[in-house]
Amino acid sequence: QEKYIQKYAPVAVSEMYRSGVPASITLAQGLLESRYGLSELAVNGNNHFGIKCHDWTGKKIYHDDDRRQECFRAYKSPDESFSDHSDFLRYRDRYKSLFDNDITDYKAWAHGLKKAGYATDPAYPSKLIKLIEDYRLYEYDKMKPEAFAQNNSSRKPEKGKVNAGETSSPIVMPAALTKKQKRAERKATKHHTQEVTEVTDQIPESPHALEQPKKVSEKRASEIFSFSLSRQVYSNNGVPFIYSAEGESYGSIAHDYNLFVREILKFNDAPRDCSLAPGTVIYLKQKKNQAPKGLEKYISDDGGETMRDIAQRFGIRLKDLCKMNQLSEGHVTLPGDELDLRIVK
Asked: How far apart are CA 99 and CA 5, in angstroms?
């Protein structure tokens, strides 16, 4: 178990910053679903999360599960499996409520996964929580990808000593706890979670970073917009965005980032009289004409979404999303509606 955690903690933390899925949840699911990387799906198909084919167009592997010879996704590498797991949760309508939880609230995420139908085992949440607490995986929810990069650069790898996908120097990971330590840690964790909840009630912050924010040179930044030193800028589909705070408007945000109001409204496909609720995604540059490679289609499981909702979710211009699907801007999805996110050639 510890070798698995040490090996895949870097990609779990990296995915957390890209997608907003807690590293603790990713690692716990990987441990449980892949049997510490030893399952048939993990060994033969690099599938560490038991994700079935659904609308998958890549390589496939067949395995007995609830039924005989069910279709599962196969990947080129474990890292690809971790990335697809993040996207599976991030972009499937049934899991969108998970991202309302704080990124450090692993218990809410564990129960939310079961409620959304990720697993049929009624004990699934408790199994995830036990793994997270036994191996202190919640520590990774506070880490940044740079911590692993710094560790790896501290000494050069020896020739022939590192396999593909492994790190060249040991990552310092939380040690497993004794039973006595576990009881004390659970009490402390419960108290800590309550404190975090109280703080976030007062200062709304969203953990849903879609990509690790990239550094921008001072000259380039001044050409695009001015950064606020006290505010996190995120990126989705390569487009920078922020989350709105209580009391803000499109006008006040435009002023803060040296933009015209008409620009920020255009970037977000918003009408001039559009109200702004706290926690709304606000793009600071023009969105793209299609989603990134790998996100070909979107299925609106429950329906009731506007075309603008989907355009904002994937960082796509509204007019381009409507054009590629031959739908009007006022269209509202029905349950099961399938939309193209990339231009079909």
From this structure: 24
Q: How many other β-carbons are positioned within 10 Å of the β-carbon of residue 98?
A: 22
Q: What is the DSSP string of 181-227?
A: HHHHHHHHHHHHHHHHHHHHHHS------SSPPPP--HHHHHHH-PP
Euclidean distance between CA atoms 208 and 337, whole angstroms: 25
pLDDT of residue 66: 60
Q: Which residues pair with 11 in a beta bridge?
A: none
Name the burial class of residue 201, with classes exposed (0-12), middle (13-18) and buried (19+) by CB atoms within 10 angstroms of its CB: exposed
Query: Taking a C-beta distance cutoff of 8 angstroms, is the pair 174, 199 a contact?
Result: no
Q: Which residues contact 16 (CB under 8 A, 6 or more apart)?
A: 22, 23, 26, 103, 140, 141, 209
pLDDT tier for residue 212 given thresholds of 50, 70 and 90:
very low
Q: How many CB atoms lie within 10 A of CB 77?
A: 12
As a whole number, the mean pLDDT across the chain is: 77
Q: Is the dihedral of CA 13, 15, 18, 23 positive or negative?
A: negative
**Strand blocks (E) in the chain:** 60-63, 70-73, 234-236, 239-243, 281-283, 297-300, 337-340
Contact 292, 211 (CB under 8 A): no
Per residue in 120-172, pLDDT (tens digit) is 889 999 999 999 999 999 999 988 887 876 555 433 333 333 333 333 333 34
Lowest mean pLDDT among 17-26, 146-155, 162-171, 226-235: 162-171
